[in-house]
Specification:
Phosphatidylethanolamine-binding Protein; 3-stranded antiparallel sheet
């Protein structure tokens, strides 16, 4: 059984679920680190809690990672790490969609589709943005973008695993910023015209 979602984290979601208690931020963050010193993560492509455009998912060709913006991290930070996970993945751990590190500890951004400095292995063992593809018929999944500021630069090689990254980060997090996107696949994308036209 997963641990309950901590109250400080549950407040970040409209509908907290068991999977939120398995996110990397539960292991690496706490209430004092969340948005410390005004540390924030945003995107020009969606507001917190809003759906991802299909152009960032497996449902469209030539899809890429969404753009992200962040404010300056807490003082004393030397590097930043981005972990993106699907909180609604069945099983004992969330599906990891992106592991990014080597980000400068300053106000910055990743442009749409931009290649980050260093990328680790996602849930499919690829070093890239794993396109969201929840099962058809599932309620919207929460894709949680977790940005961590660290008090030291990481020495991990590209292609490191989620566990390797988390071990290297433990005890070194100076601040955390969260941003959630949702996504659900439409069951009637292909035959909407057959179904709806027949009713009219």
């Amino acid at each position: 059984m997963p641990d309950p979602v901590p109250a400080w984290l549950a407040a970040c979601f409209d509908t907290p679920r068991a999977g939120h208690g398995l996110l990397a931020v539960v292991r690496l963050g706490n209430a004092a680190l969340l948005n410390k010193d005004g540390f924030r993560l945003t995107s020009p492509a969606f507001e917190d809690g809003e759906p991802l455009d299909p152009s960032f998912t497996a449902d469209e060709e030539d899809s890429v990672a969404p753009p992200l913006d962040w404010s300056a991290p807490p003082r004393g930070s030397e590097e930043m790490v981005l972990v993106v996970e699907d909180a609604d993945t069945p099983g004992s751990s969330p599906a990891c969609h992106w592991l990014v590190w080597g980000l400068a500890a300053q106000r910055g951004k990743l442009m749409e589709g931009e290649a980050p400095p260093r990328v680790g292995k996602n849930a499919q063992r690829n070093s890239e943005w794993l396109l969201p593809q929840p099962p058809e018929g599932d309620p919207p999944h929460d894709y949680v973008f977790q940005l961590f500021a660290l008090d030291l630069p990481l020495v991990l090689r590209p292609g490191a695993s989620r566990e390797d990254l988390m071990k290297a980060m433990e005890g070194h997090v100076t601040g955390v910023a969260l941003l959630t996107a949702t996504y659900a696949r439409s069951e009637d994308d292909e035959d909407w015209d057959d179904d709806e036209d027949a009713d009219e």
